[in-house]
Amino acid sequence: MERGYETTNRPSIRRDQLVTVQDLLDFKDSLVSDVKKLLKEAAGVPAQQWLKAVDVKKMLRLSDGKLQYLRDKGIIPFKKLGGVTYYNLHEIQELMSSGKLDTQLKPA
Question: Which residue has the higher pLDDT, 36 or 15?
């Protein structure tokens, strides 16, 4: 017969399944970091330093052709690695704040 406090069908808990205070603190730090990253991304600021073309087009609201034009004219800095084009987030932000990009995007 089971003990009085174990009348429900609970699975047994082993020592290696216990959650420690440190486990909870580590989880909290990880969760806070993930939430901060998501908030930055939701605000339009990608979490990584190097962006792919799809991210830059979304951030600047550009078409494929316009982004290619800006690359060809040397207006927007980029690096190629293994056939993939990358853009430095900080350089793009500086370009946006300088106003140089605005003059290039206005129709002539």
Answer: 36
Which strands sit side by side in the sheet containing 50-52, from one edge to the other?
50-52, 84-88, 79-81
- In angstroms, the CA 80 to CA 63 distance is 19
Could you give the dihedral angle defined by the CA atoms of residues 95, 98, 101 and 104, in that order, rounded to the nearest 10 degrees?
-140
pLDDT band at 106 (very low <50, low <70, confident <90, very high): low
Task: For residue 71, give the nearest of 90, 89, 53, 59 by alpha carbon.
Answer: 53
Q: Can you spell out the DSSP letters for 3-68? A: -GGG-S-PPP--GGGPPPHHHHHHHHHHHHHHHHHHHHHHTT--SSSEEEHHHHHHHHT--HHHHH
Q: Enter the tokens of residue 48.
A: 């990584």
